[in-house]
Amino acid sequence: MKTRPLTLRRYVLALAGWALLWLAVSAAAVVLGAENIWAWDSWEKTRDVLILRLYTVLTAGVVGASLALAGLALQALLRNPLAEPYVLGVSGGAGLGVILSSLYLTAIAAPVFGFVGALVTVAVVYAVAQRRGRLEPYTLLLTGVIINAFYGAAIMLVTALTSPERRGEIAYWMMGTISTFDPRWSLVAVVGGLALGAAVLFAFLAKGFNLVAVGEDTAGALGVPVERLRLATFVTASLVTGASVALAGPIGFVGLICPHLLRMVLGPDHRRLVPAVACFGASLLVAADLVTRLLEGVGGVAPPVGVLTAMTGGPFFIYLLRTRWRRKTEIR
Amino acid sequence: MKHTTLYVVLALAAGLAAGLAAGCRESPSPEEADGPEYAPKRMRILSLAPNVTEILFALGLGSRIVGRSNYCDFPEEAKTIPAVGDTIHLNLEKIVSLEPTVAFVVTKRADVVKTLQSLGIRTVALESDTMNELLKAIETIGHETGRPAPAQTLIDDIQDDLDTVRRRVEGRPRPKVLFAFPMAVGSSNMMVAGRGTFVDELLSVAGGENAFPEAADWPTITPQRVIELAPEVVIVNAVGEDAAPDRVEAIGRAWMNWASIPAVANSRVYILQDEFLTIPGPGVGMAADRLSRVIHRPGPGETDFAEERDRP
């Protein structure tokens, strides 16, 4: 793809543009919802709902940004266009950690256990899928499938052992949902801070990502500390995935859809992709959550947002598998 | 890279926004009074549990209910009230639009109560796992809605009903009764009433003894355990989808396999379809009456569960 050289001015302008998109989608998602709050006679009521919506929109934003960034970084480092926290089982590992923590320990520690679950999963997936330092694309995905199946079974076991009331809650939570019950503003702030930290770090590492995408040996020869880059990326991606799963459950395919759509628009340069993916991921999830709330207003039932992303992301995954990836592997 | 400064600025802005938002939330709603001081005429009730809805209707407050849970479908009039979800997912925007002044919930989830309260709705968390809790819940509802006298009448009526049943079964032998829900499709395990549940109390009022000896809510047990418990009477409550004729047939056939169970050997397995048996509401007297009539039938071998099924 032909692109003009990246100057600071263009960088800032692009970033402002993407941020503006996020802002616009968020504003729309605060204005619209299940009920037409603007026709209400009392401002107090409208204000109450506005605060609920603001919470939802901020949560969806930070979770979407986190997952999209994690997806982009994992795709770069694993050199696999289909890598994504949900597909690789990283979200599942985080989910198991969060469930175990909230059932048997404390809900406050859930993000920490989410992070541990995510990190362990990344380490296991990487260790299993690599052969003498080389990552086989298919092996990687199959490892993700198996790991997901394992976590699925473990979560079912935990679910079976708990009370029927909790069982329903866990099942609903596992679908990936942004709950406005007991808003946890401070957790949103923490997850937002982590996402921002990840974005900054990945912006620094973007050149490294570009070189690793060409080949790890090449990158190493050009002075990229590949091992350290890998470690930093895996830990950061696990951190943001674990934190966002603690906040909203495992929401799939945001980390797959966003980087791919943006690569089609912006090309493969990670320096452009990192800020764009963060803002676009946030916008996408905010929009998806808005759709669930609008559906609730029309039909009375709100599909969990994770169901929505999985139902659109699944076909997109297959599309990528059938077209873009095949082309890429043929070139190699 | 110079871009980092920009990110840092953004970070600070985001942090500030989050902090401000968190600050806004801390101030408690001024509407939060500590007693039911509003005029009852303006009372608008949100009922988030089926038994609470029944109690409210029994107290003559049905017309004051502005919102209900998805599961509140009795009495029939309740179905016309807007549904707002359940304790796993509530449509909070809808709830705010209905302007309830008081909400009744039966849940142990503190976050549900907290969220409703933060919306300026006086929220009362009730418990109804035991008979005492149920009577207490009725009293609380009466107090909160400014109707203590009708509530007391309802409590007295329930206790009278229960006493009537108690007197009728007095002196009769108390068989070991297992109260179970049908096994799920594809499984032979079933949920049974444990000691301490209000169904356990109903069995005792109705002149039976719970065959499940342990204090537990609604444990799921295996057929082996059922055989080991050797109940003399089995009451299976097939409601909802399980009430379909082919399901009832299938449940009956499954039980017939376990002939070593006294209840099976003596044809004392009853498959009922009475939703009210497990709802801790105004219908508990009726439930005790129903159970007593099932438990104290004419001698063994004279009844077949297939006949019982068609009785009202």
Short précis:
The complex is a heterodimer of chains A (332) and B (312). Helix content of chain A is 78%, strand content 1%. Chain A has 332 residues and is mainly alpha-helical.
Descriptors for this entry?
heterodimer; A: 332 residues; mainly alpha; ABC transporter involved in vitamin B12 uptake, BtuC; two-stranded antiparallel ribbon; 13 helices; 2 strands; B: 312 residues; alpha/beta; Rossmann fold; 2 domains; four-stranded parallel sheet; 10 strands; globular; disordered C terminus
Q: Could you walk me through the main structural features you see in this protein, from its secondary elements to its overall organization?
A:
The complex is a heterodimer of chains A (332) and B (312). By secondary structure, chain A is an all-alpha fold. Chain A has a single domain, classed as ABC transporter involved in vitamin B12 uptake, BtuC, CATH 1.10.3470.10. Helices cover 78% and strands 1% of the residues of chain A. Chain A is built from 13 helices and 2 strands, in the order ααααββααααααααα. Chain A has a two-stranded antiparallel ribbon with strand order 1-2. In chain A, β1 and β2 form a beta hairpin. Chain A is globular and about 65 Å long. Chain A starts with 7 loop residues before the first helix and ends with a helix. Chain B is an alpha/beta fold. Chain B has 2 domains: 39-146, 3-Layer(aba) Sandwich (Rossmann fold), CATH 3.40.50; 172-310, Nitrogenase molybdenum iron protein domain (Rossmann fold). Chain B has 12 helices and 10 strands. In chain B, the strands form 3 sheets. A 4-stranded parallel sheet of chain B has the order 2-1-3-4, with helices on both faces. Chain B has a 4-stranded parallel sheet with strand order 7-5-9-10, sandwiched between helices. In chain B, strands 6-8 form a two-stranded antiparallel sheet. In chain B, α2 (50-58) links the parallel β1 and β2 (65-68). In chain B, α5 packs antiparallel against α6 (148-169) and α6 (148-169) packs parallel to α11. The longest helix of chain B is centred in the N-terminal third of the chain and has 24 residues, at 3-26. Chain B is globular. Residues 4-39 and 301-312 of chain B have low confidence and may be disordered. The interface between A and B is large, with 48 and 43 residues.
